[in-house]
Structures are given as structure tokens and as C-alpha cells.
Design goal:
By secondary structure, this protein is of the alpha+beta class. The protein is built from eight helices and four strands. Belongs to the ATPase delta chain family.
């Protein structure tokens, strides 16, 4: 991991721990999860929001004011709104995507859940998602939630990442393996 990325991750994890502890004490963990969903949507859908949190052109005051307005419009909890305001004041909004990820992981771990990143060539149907979730629940012994993405370059099959384990049954990887074997022979 590069040094700036590890610094960002460390900052995000500290904020995530603090937010989780505050939410747990106030019995607001479910509300914070709603905040995370809203923030993920904003990060994904809004280029302006991305620019706001990453651009050095905005002053602390401009970021703080924009975050205050956005938090009100998004209906964020007081805990999350205060955290974002503090991050703006400290010029730390650039770690927001990492904060969202770290906080999701912290909440999931506390609930005994784990997230599986699933990449498929085509979108999974509801039945396929349910079967995969059931299978992963049985193999991990924890409640698994799927984070599915589509990558058509896989051609077929799927890639599943659960924690540090990865299962790659994609046709692309099988073709790459076959190509390597053929290179070794010839």
C-alpha cells in the first residue's frame, strides 16, 4: 500500500471508530447505517460532491458551509453531521470514501456480519444472489452481505472476495491459466 493511501486509511479508521463508539452509546447504529447509504449514493452520483471533498481550491469555510447544507438536506444524524463538519474544519474530507468503507466494516464486524465482494460478467438474479449468500453463510459461519459489481471482461463466471480469501471462477482467469500453461510447454 502506498504511504498516502495508508495515511488516509489510518485517518479514516480513527474517525470510523469514533463515530461508531458515539453511535453505539447513543443507540443510533442503525441511523448511522442510513447515513452511510446516503453518503455512498452522494459519492457515487455527484461529481460536485466529489470535487467538494477532494479539491484544494475550496477553503475550510466553504467546505464546512457546504457540508452543513448537505447534511441538513440529506437528513444525516447529528453525530455524522458533526463528524463531517470536523473533517471539513481539519481539511480531512478527502478521506470520506475510506471513512464510509471503514465504518461499514466496523458496524458489520460488531453485528457478526461480513461483506463479500462479488464481481460477475452479468448481473446476478435474485435467485442466484440468494443461493450465493446462503452458500457463503454456510462456509464462513457468519451472516454475509453481497456487494455485487459487473465486469463484462470476465466473459463468464464470477470472482468472490471474502476478507482475505478470493475465489476466481471466471472464464477470463481460466483462459489466462491455459495461456500460461501453453507458454510453458512451447
Amino acid at each position: 500500500m502506498s504511504e498516502p493511501a495508508s495515511i488516509s486509511t489510518g485517518i479514516a479508521e480513527r474517525y470510523a471508530t469514533a463515530v461508531y463508539d458515539l453511535a453505539r452509546e447513543a443507540n443510533q447504529v442503525d441511523a448511522i447505517e442510513g447515513d452511510l447509504t446516503a453518503l455512498e449514493a452522494a459519492l457515487t452520483d455527484s461529481d460536485d460532491f466529489q470535487r467538494l471533498i477532494t479539491s484544494p481550491l475550496y477553503t475550510r469555510e466553504q467546505q464546512a458551509q457546504a457540508i452543513k447544507v448537505l447534511a441538513d438536506k440529506m437528513g444525516l444524524t447529528k453525530t455524522m453531521a458533526s463528524t463531517l463538519a470536523l473533517m471539513a474544519q481539519k481539511r480531512r474530507l478527502f478521506v470520506l470514501p475510506a471513512l464510509v468503507k471503514a465504518l461499514r466494516e466496523t458496524i458489520a464486524e460488531a453485528k457478526g456480519e461480513i461483506t463479500a465482494d462479488v464481481t460477475t460478467a452479468k448481473a446476478l438474479t435474485k435467485t442466484q444472489s440468494d443461493k450465493l449468500t446462503k452458500s457463503l453463510n454456510a462456509s464462513t459461519g457468519k451472516k454475509v452481505s453481497l456487494h455485487a459489481t459487473v465486469d463484462e471482461s470476465l466473459i463468464g463466471g464470477l470472482v468472490v472476495k471474502v476478507g482475505s480469501k478470493m475465489i476466481d471462477t471466471s472464464i477470463r482467469s481460466k483462459l489466462n491459466s491455459l495461456q500460461n500453461v501453453m507458454k510453458e510447454v512451447g
